[in-house]
Amino acid sequence: MPADFPPVGNGLRVLRRWNRAGFVTHIRDQLQRRVSISKGRCPHPVTLIVDAQSVSGSSTVGRNSRGYDAAKKVNGRKRHITVGTLGLAVMITVTPADIQDREAARDIFWRLRLTQPQITQVWADRGYAGDLVNWARERLWLTLRIASRPKGTKGFVVLPRRWKVERTIGWCMNARRNARDHERLPQHSEAHLNWAPIALMTRRPTRRKPAPGCARKPKPAR
Question: Can you name the residues that pair with 146 across neighbouring β-strands?
Fold first, then answer.
C-alpha cells in the first residue's frame, strides 16, 4: 500500500467490518442503480444472467471451505456471479469448488427472490439445466432459460446474453487480488470480488462525454 495509507492490518479490519455490516454490497447496489438510470434502464433489473468460475486457492484457504472441481481440474473455490443485462453485478457468492452449479443455484435463486422480487427470468448455461428449471418455476415462479452452444461449433463461441456475465468475470479478474483466492473465509473473498465492479461503476457516472464538434479530423492522405 502507498506510504501515506494506514497499515495493512487496519485496512483489512475496516474491510471486514464493512462487509459484516453489509456496507460493501450496499455501495455496489446503489452504484448499479445509478448507472442503470444513467443508461435509461430500470434501476431494478428483471432479467439476470448467472455463471460460475473456479479458481485455485492458496495455502491460506481452509480445507473446510475449498474443494476440487474435477471438470476444470481446479483445487480451490468457485465464484457464482449474477449480473443484469448491462453486465453489472447483482449478487456474488463464493463456495467450495466441488459444489455443483445447480446445487449452488438453489440457494442463490432463493436469495435473489427475497432481495430482488421483481426478477422474472434468469439466463444460464447447460450446467444449470435439468430439474433446476422446473424447481425454479414451481417454487419461485422464476423462468430459467438455458443458452446452449450451437451444434457443430468448436472452440470459443460468443453466446447471446451469456457473454455479458463472462465479461463481468473478466472485469473481476483484472484485479490481481482476484486472480487467485487467498482469503481464509468465503465472505472475505466475496468482499474483494465486489470491489472490482464497484471500482468500475464509480468511473462511469463521472466519465466525461466528448464536447460537440470535437470529433477527430481525418488525417490527410499522403
Answer: 124
